[in-house]
Amino acid sequence: MNENKTRVALIQMSCEVDTKLNLDKAAERVYEAAREGAQIVCLPELFRAQYFCQREDHALFDTAEPIPGPSTDVLTGVAREAGVVIIASLFERRAAGLYHNTAVTIEKDGSIHDVYRKMHIPDDPLYYEKFYFTPGDLGFKATRTSAGNVGTLVCWDQWYPEGARLTALKGAEVLFYPTAIGWHPSEKEEFGEAQYDAWQTTQRAHAISNGVWVCAVNRVGHEHGDVKHNGVTMKGPEGAGLEFWGGSFIADPFGRIVAKASHDKEEILLADLDMKLVEITRQHWPFLRDRRIDFYEGVTKRFLD
Is the pTM of this model over 0.85? Predict the structure, then answer.
């Protein structure tokens, strides 16, 4: 492979009820991606469980874990054996009563290289994340890995240009967005296509305006948020649930889609990212050069009256 290119793998997967089965599946998918030549592998948001934030249930805090903890113990071993960098989104128990939606970057030597805590926390019907997660306090970060300079943001973060910009300004050349997003079945026919298009478009815009690669990885499948953990099953709410729309994709620094997954199948999405394209794109479209940083103070205010 060209030394300027990095092979990325996005693990688009469905999630089982049993958290152990999901961790085992994720590990197998990482090994498979490594056999395909992947140098960095990203898993979807909160892959260890069905998306449990469809309801508010105190019992589900028992599924949270420290970092380092059981999941990172498994994944650090996988990274070391497979020789790949892994980005994994976990339900972090930081302290009693303090929990985060956290992405861990694991180096190919098996070390925990960096931690990012999701900054933007949604609170929408069937996405009741504010009940579970404290907003991140580590800020936006870029991580220099053996596979390149990367930045990780998580799901709801993907709608905010400020997060993408700050991560790029810190040196990230690839933005990873582990995601769990889907359709309310009752809305799919009328709004589904537009919702997916908006999701993809806003992230392609991050690629264009910052001159970076963008890699968004989602889950697939219809879920009610049933979770089995340590032998205890916690049932999700009755009703239609969520249909996760998959559609994971990779966009180049000018927003062109170079790889895209289906909406309903488990896939390992692979692409070779040419890091020289970051500099070439920024030379021709110098958005970072022409920013008027002397007039942007208003962006730190909630609203300008």
Answer: yes
